[in-house]
Design goal:
Strand content: 15-25%
CATH architecture of the largest domain: 2-Layer Sandwich
CATH superfamily of the largest domain: DNA ligase/mRNA capping enzyme
Helix content: 25-40%
Number of helices: 24
Number of domains: 6
Bound molecules: 2-(butylsulfanyl)adenosine
CATH topology of the largest domain: D-amino Acid Aminotransferase, Chain A, domain 1
Largest sheet: 5 strands, mixed
CATH class of the largest domain: Alpha Beta
Strand order of the largest sheet: 2-13-10-3-9
Distance between the termini: 40 Å
Number of strands: 26
Structural class: alpha+beta
Length: about 700
């Protein structure tokens, strides 16, 4: 492609990518699959790699860039970033209105109201100049905030250029938008799971996670966090903007700024109040954390006329939801040890009801948090419950102390094994480094069996296996005998046989699954797959230099170091030897040479993707497909010949539909395989009439 053609294509691609982001983040109705979207971005990246001077700052490929900063630069806001007055009851909502109605100018229209969620995230101020995002800042003290542009650029929902869609309105040359950055509840759960799997500290709640991610000095870390944006007001503009709040929201949305579904326009204050109370019941289903609603007068000229008092506009009031909080006594602190040896403090509380549930335990997060807030045993503490998140202590009420309170120190020794507890340099967490620590061992075992899909081995069984000394590392599982299992509570003949069978089957799981199950820090399923794609066996991986490990896609220097360190440890080497001796698969499948198939190959040249719940373990189906010459891949693409879908198939199913990949159920797959075996012809993608056509 010559440079002119490349430039045209790059511009077209950027426009398409922006449009699809708009469909996804703003309209919530994407028209392409994730794969198709990624393909557009990949194509743009390839062009930009070939012609670097064609890269523009607002290109969707330019979200992450730059090295870690030393600190944040202060910025003065173009207008004060005001705070809000609060109301907590119907009476207070009416009192707010009575107060301001006396001040309404005679010519002001009869007020109508807009009610929006009060997002529990971080306020941000986004500056656009000629449609380009030029600066993004935190609220700070309302007058001066911090420049966090590089971090805000990494958030896919933050437009780098407006309007995002080609048919959107043309904004004025300068437009400053205010909004809230937060993490959606579904993304928060996934983020914590990912951090836990990588052996890293998890976040106590979505707000902390959003704050911690947004105020990162290294934008590459921010880029990995699932941050989202909702925009709700125009702070400044040097051209005409809509006259009402409702129209401003619609205008911001048309420019490409995401908005929540839950926005109401109310004609009367009674309707406002009813809406506010009706939202209590809907609060758990919001999908994001909101600590209340903001009631705003719709007419923006009325805002100006009413002015502000004490940094709070008179024209709006925050209705706070009843607290999902309580104050109770911190009786004691319990320490527990996780799979990676991290020692975690949990608050044991005087039981207290919070929003209908009795809470007697709550997260204390980590020892830094305890020290920062100076939380002591015996303190009256604030405990909060939000959405699906486990309750957590937010802080103490020091004024209520009577002098009997005791400081909380990290334990000197591991509560499970008594080994010394250490805090490695530069880390927040305290660890027990005893590889034989029973608490760690139990957690490792349950993780191992979970990742390898070994059914019939729950938490209680794992605890007992460790207590009875039957298992000292995950490899010992494969050496268990029936006599061993019969020693466990609740295990009779049949249950023991079933578990032995499940363990035996797990020997055959792909080596990448085994690697993931071993739980090295930073090595979840995806990283394990990438490592074993690059190095064919655990032995090759163990022998690989750290620098080579770091060249594998998705493996950073820290994980490369952890992998190297793990394999260098004598204890882990012994574990691998035990696994080898008992016949656990340690190498990635070596593909059978195509020239010498061992039998009929009806699936030769076909690629399958398997998804959903099937009657047989996935590995077995994969082995069967491979024995008939087929290939099995992990993701649906244009190259997929068939998707084999069981019950509850999810995104792969949708993607196959979008790409027009034929979908088979298990019976259809078997039928084709078995027919083919009898020599009944060959089928390629789309060539099989029995396949469920995506739209039929
Ligand atoms: S309007 C002049 N609307 O709540 C505009 N604020 O003390 C005043 N907040 O940190 C703010 N959701 O950033 C407004 N829909 C919403 C909001 C909202 C969250 C935040 C705001 C501030 C706090 C109010």
């Amino acid at each position: 492609m010559d440079k002119d053609a490349a430039q045209l294509r790059a511009e077209k691609l950027r426009e398409e990518i922006r449009y699809h982001s708009y469909r996804y983040y703003v309209l919530d109705s994407p028209v392409v699959s994730d794969g198709q979207f990624d393909a557009l971005v990949d194509e743009l990246r390839a062009i930009e790699a070939e012609f670097p001077d064609l890269v523009t700052p607002d290109s969707p490929t330019q979200r992450v860039g730059g090295a870690p900063a030393e600190g944040f630069v202060k910025v003065t806001h173009p207008a004060p970033i005001l705070s809000l007055d609060k109301a907590t009851s119907r009476e207070e909502i009416f009192a707010w209105y009575t107060r301001i109605s006396k001040l309404l100018p005679a010519d002001a229209p009869t007020p109508t109201f807009v009610v929006e969620p009060k997002f529990d995230g971080l306020t941000v101020v986004l500056h656009y100049h000629n449609g380009q995002l030029v600066q993004g800042a935190t609220r700070g003290d309302g007058r001066v905030g911090e420049d966090i542009t590089v971090n805000l650029r990494t958030i896919p929902a933050v437009p780098l250029r407006i309007p995002v869609a080609p048919d959107g309105p043309q904004p004025p040359a300068t437009l400053v938008v205010r909004g809230e950055v937060l993490i959606l509840l579904k993304d928060f759960a996934a983020l914590n799971q990912k951090l836990a799997a990588a052996g890293e500290a998890t976040f106590a709640n979505p707000r902390n996670a959003a704050a911690g991610s947004l105020r990162q000095l290294d934008p590459r870390i921010t880029a990995q966090r699932p941050l989202h944006l909702f925009a709700y007001s125009i702070v400044a503009a040097d051209g005409p903007t809509p006259p009402t709040q409702r129209e401003s929201l619609a205008y911001l949305r048309a420019l490409g700024f995401p908005q929540p579904e839950e926005i109401a326009t109310c004609e009367t204050l009674e309707a406002v109040s009813d809406y506010c109370f009706g939202m209590h019941a809907r609060r758990p289903n919001l999908g994001y954390e909101a600590d209340g609603l903001v009631i705003k007068i719709n007419d923006l000229a009325t805002w100006t006329a009413l002015g502000a008092v004490g940094g709070r506009p008179r024209a709006a009031v925050a209705y706070k939801f009843p607290a999902q909080e309580a104050v109770t006594r911190l009786r004691d602190v319990e320490f527990s040890v996780g799979r990676t040896g991290v020692v975690t403090p949990t608050a044991l509380l005087e039981p207290t009801p919070i929003a209908g549930v009795t809470v007697s335990r709550a997260s204390l997060h980590n020892f830094d948090f305890i020290a920062e807030r100076d939380i002591r045993i015996g303190d009256q503490v604030n405990v909060k419950r939000a959405g699906d998140v486990i309750p957590y202590v937010t802080g103490p009420l020091p004024d209520l102390r009577d002098g009997t309170e005791r400081a909380i120190a990290p334990p000197q020794t591991c509560p499970a094994c008594g080994d010394p507890v250490v805090q490695p340099e530069g880390e927040i967490a305290y660890y027990c480094f005893n590889a034989a620590c029973p608490a760690q061992l139990t957690q490792k075992l349950t993780y191992f069996t979970h990742v390898l899909d070994i059914e019939g081995l729950g938490d209680r069984t794992a605890v007992q296996m460790v207590e009875l000394g039957l298992v000292k590392d995950p490899a010992d599982l494969y050496y268990l005998t029936k006599t061993d299992l019969l020693k466990l509570e609740g295990f009779a003949d049949k249950k023991a046989d079933n578990l032995l069978e499940a363990i035996a089957q797990a020997k055959e799981r792909p080596a990448a699954r085994l690697l993931a199950a071993l739980g090295l820090r930073g090595v979840g399923g995806v990283a394990a797959g990438a490592l074993l794609a690059a190095f064919p066996s655990l032995d090759d991986l163990a022998a690989a230099p750290e620098e080579s490990l770091a060249t594998v896609e998705g493996i950073g220097p820290i994980t490369a170091h952890n992998v190297k360190a793990w394999f260098s440890h004598g204890h882990n080497q012994a574990l691998i030897e035990k696994l080898r001796k008992i016949g656990v698969r340690l190498a990635a499948e070596v593909k059978a040479p195509a020239a010498e198939p061992s039998g009929p190959q009806p699936f030769a040249g076909l690629t399958f993707v398997i998804t959903g719940a099937l009657s047989q373990p996935r590995d077995e189906i994969q082995a069967w497909i491979e024995s008939l010459g087929g290939k099995v891949s992990g993701s649906v693409s244009q190259k997929t010949s068939y998707l084999v879908a069981g019950a509850d198939a999810g995104s792969k199913y949708t993607r196959a539909q979008a790409l027009g990949v034929p979908i088979l159920d298990e019976a259809q797959l078997k039928e084709i395989g078995n027919q083919g075996r009898e020599g009944e012809g060959e089928r390629g993608r789309g060539g099989d009439k029995k396949a469920t056509s995506p739209d039929s």
